[in-house]
């Protein structure tokens, strides 16, 4: 098996994968999808993706959280789906994408700004 074969298979999975779309649908809310997007987006940067960072990003982007459901509940839900992982090896626990190919699929098929608008709208609707 060559690197070229592996890369071709990965590209095919990223291009057309019903399983990733199904997992996306199972996330159920745009708030959880936005959270997944945040973990992907900031997981490659210098910041540690922990609860505090995610809460500050929700505030920064204007996504209102339903006070009856904590961000921790959403993180637990995504962990149950096995689309994110909690890394406890560092001093502070951090979150990361659990399926790296799904992160590539996400960037190829989903629009960050559209999802942000949906999450903002969903938060406002829930607050009413």
Description:
Helix 1 (3-15) crosses helix 6, helix 3 (30-43) crosses helix 5 and helix 3 crosses helix 7 (112-127). The chain has one domain (3-127): Winged helix-like DNA-binding domain superfamily/Winged helix DNA-binding domain (Arc Repressor Mutant, subunit A), CATH 1.10.10. The longest helix has 16 residues, at 112-127. It has seven helices and two strands, in the order αααααββαα. The model has no long low-confidence stretch (mean pLDDT 87). The N and C termini lie far apart (56 Å). With 128 residues, it is mainly α.
CATH topology: Arc Repressor Mutant, subunit A
> What proportion of the residues is helical, as a percent range?
55-70%
Q: How many angstroms separate the termini?
A: 56 Å
Helix tally equals: 7
Per CATH, the superfamily is: Winged helix-like DNA-binding domain superfamily/Winged helix DNA-binding domain
User: What is the count of distinct domains?
Assistant: 1
Sheet with most strands:
2 strands, antiparallel
Rg: 15 Å
CATH class: Mainly Alpha
Q: Which properties best describe this structure?
A:
128 residues, mainly alpha, Arc Repressor Mutant, subunit A, two-stranded antiparallel sheet, 7 helices, 2 strands
